[in-house]
């Protein structure tokens, strides 16, 4: 495909996301949603797909995490370097209530494997003349209050469309709305339609819109009272069928569903959950992936370059990992592990052992992810550690500033870490961002994930680990239902089931976790090195070759984008 980067207006897919992870030093993301968005656009650049991204500048980031000795999380301002962004002269105005709010734009260019460039436009309200309550909207990602959130979504969706028009992007055929935050883009398209009647306007917008939902629980969807919506958007088309619930509330996800002709969940299991949540809409499944090059450690990239030279341009070719000698895979892993352990020593002066089995757990700290499941029966864990094989554990992750339960989970990990420090080594690394994530997913021996099914839409950290030969150890939820092959790619905790007795579910899952550690995982790691290395090889060949954003984007192209080569 030819490089269209210099031809304004030739891009055909616009991808709207509240957060996009561009790189570690640019704090425009909070977690998995933003990292997925960044990986998606990186793969678009690799494929030469005429796609662009739209997000908020978020110049104060999400937050910089600081944790004291007791495990108390403090949220600090996370400024970033603007040197890799280009400020464009374009400005538009968007109506919020009675006020005209000026919105500017910055550009970041993602370069693919070749010369192709994908632009990402970052919207900025810190414009001279805007009232303070508006100029701060593109500062902190997910700032405080419902009004702040709604105004951010107005900027992303409605000002985002206006900015693309200002930039002369006339050839966009598809507007991909990544989660409900961007749904107001569809409202802007509807109100801008030149069709004469409502049905034709709807048809026009629906032909253009693609919607991806990521949230399998109702509480995770943004919902605002209609009166509140109209206070901030007087032209909101509230008379349209399905936009307003019977209780006079507006669900942003339902706006995305209503205006899109293609809707998808992010894993096969999530599709089923979403169809139950929204039975009036046909929801497809396109399982998430990760950008292979971004999440492969230097040690593994080196051996892939030698044995699978086209892996960067054809992620599917990672299935040829079966041709890599087991000893070579093991050596690459040891280098990646050493890099992680050296980082830990540098940061905390704690020396973890290279030859000790290392469990990694890193993600957002919130109730359903059950970060403390490993310690459900600490005596059992210590017994396994002392009698079957030594264990050391590395934790990382942030809790949302308003999630007290999540913060308490971090404190609980610290309490256990300190209480049993003479018996087992446990480390908690603060500041879980892209750079640390890459060190962890490539440097541990097994990647632990313990969500309470069916609350995990997909999850992607285990996919990143797979690119580095790190087997997955997880409850059967999200992507792992598809990626798990018994005795080949990792181990399953518990059984796939939906239960209501949380105490009993936690007990059974903890028992399964300990059983697998004691009977399957540690005996293989310490007692059968060749078998362990084969598991690593299978993890790369089977899971890394499929669970990547190259494959994911190709599915979007085949199932909906239909972007022809130019």
From TrEMBL:
<protein>
    <submittedName>
        <fullName>Alpha-glucan family phosphorylase</fullName>
    </submittedName>
</protein>
<dbReference type="GO" id="GO:0008184">
    <property type="term" value="F:glycogen phosphorylase activity"/>
</dbReference>
<dbReference type="InterPro" id="IPR000811">
    <property type="entry name" value="Glyco_trans_35"/>
</dbReference>
<dbReference type="GO" id="GO:0030170">
    <property type="term" value="F:pyridoxal phosphate binding"/>
</dbReference>
<dbReference type="InterPro" id="IPR011834">
    <property type="entry name" value="Agluc_phsphrylas"/>
</dbReference>
<dbReference type="Pfam" id="PF00343">
    <property type="entry name" value="Phosphorylase"/>
</dbReference>
<dbReference type="InterPro" id="IPR052182">
    <property type="entry name" value="Glycogen/Maltodextrin_Phosph"/>
</dbReference>
<dbReference type="GO" id="GO:0005975">
    <property type="term" value="P:carbohydrate metabolic process"/>
</dbReference>
<comment type="similarity">
    <text>Belongs to the glycogen phosphorylase family.</text>
</comment>
């Amino acid at each position: 495909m030819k490089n269209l980067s210099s031809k304004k207006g030739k891009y055909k897919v616009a991808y709207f996301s509240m957060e996009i992870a561009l790189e570690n030093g640019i704090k425009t993301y909070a977690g998995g949603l933003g990292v997925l968005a960044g990986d998606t656009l990186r793969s678009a650049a690799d494929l030469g797909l005429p796609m662009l991204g739209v997000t908020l500048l978020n110049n104060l980031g999400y937050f910089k995490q600081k944790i004291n000795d007791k495990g108390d999380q403090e949220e600090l301002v996370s400024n970033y370097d603007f040197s890799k962004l280009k400020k464009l002269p374009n400005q538009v105005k968007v109506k919020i209530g009675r006020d005209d709010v000026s919105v500017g734009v910055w550009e970041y260019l993602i370069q693919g494997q070749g010369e192709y460039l994908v632009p990402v436009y970052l919207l900025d309200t810190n414009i001279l003349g805007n009232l303070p309550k508006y100029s701060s909207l593109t500062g902190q990602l997910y700032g405080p209050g419902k009004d702040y959130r709604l105004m951010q979504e107005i900027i992303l969706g409605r000002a985002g469309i206006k900015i693309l028009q200002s930039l002369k992007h006339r050839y966009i055929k598809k507007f991909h709305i990544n989660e409900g935050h961007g749904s107001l883009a569809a409202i802007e398209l509807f109100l801008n339609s030149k069709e004469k009647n409502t049905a034709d306007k709807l048809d026009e917008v629906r032909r253009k819109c693609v919607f991806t939902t990521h949230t399998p629980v109702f509480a995770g969807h943004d919902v605002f009272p209609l009166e509140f919506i109209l206070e901030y958007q007087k032209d909101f088309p509230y008379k349209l069928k399905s936009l307003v619930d019977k209780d006079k509330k507006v669900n942003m996800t339902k706006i995305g569903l209503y205006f899109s002709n293609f809707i998808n969940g992010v894993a096969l299991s999530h599709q089923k959950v979403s169809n139950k949540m929204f039975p009036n809409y046909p929801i497809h499944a396109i399982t998430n992936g990760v950008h292979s090059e971004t999440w492969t450690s230097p040690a593994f990239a080196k051996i892939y370059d030698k044995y699978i030279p086209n892996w960067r341009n054809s992620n599917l070719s990672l299935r040829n990992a079966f041709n890599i000698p087991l000893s070579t895979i093991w050596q690459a892993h040891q280098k990646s592990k050493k890099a992680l352990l050296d980082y830990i020593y540098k940061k905390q002066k704690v020396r973890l052992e290279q030859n000790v089995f290392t469990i990694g757990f890193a993600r957002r700290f919130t109730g359903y992810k059950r970060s403390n499941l490993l310690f459900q029966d600490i005596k059992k864990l210590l017994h396994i550690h002392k009698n079957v094989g030594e264990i050391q554990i590395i934790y990382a992750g942030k809790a949302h500033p308003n999630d007290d339960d999540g913060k308490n989970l971090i404190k609980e990990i610290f309490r256990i870490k300190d209480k049993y420090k003479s018996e087992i080594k446990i480390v908690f690394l603060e500041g879980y961002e892209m750079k640390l994530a890459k060190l962890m997913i490539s440097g541990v021996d097994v990647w632990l994930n313990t969500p309470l099914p069916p609350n995990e839409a997909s999850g992607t950290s285990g996919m990143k680990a797979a690119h580095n030969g790190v087997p997955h150890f997880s409850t059967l939820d999200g992507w792992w239902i598809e990626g798990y092959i018994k005795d080949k790619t990792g181990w399953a905790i518990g059984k796939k089931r939906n239960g209501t007795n949380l105490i009993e579910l936690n007990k059974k899952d903890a028992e399964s976790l300990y059983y697998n550690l004691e009977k399957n995982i540690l005996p293989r790691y310490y007692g059968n090195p060749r078998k362990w290395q084969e598991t690593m090889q299978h993890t790369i060949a089977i899971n890394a070759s499929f669970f990547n954003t190259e494959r994911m984007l190709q599915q979007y192209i085949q199932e909906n984008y239909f972007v022809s080569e130019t």
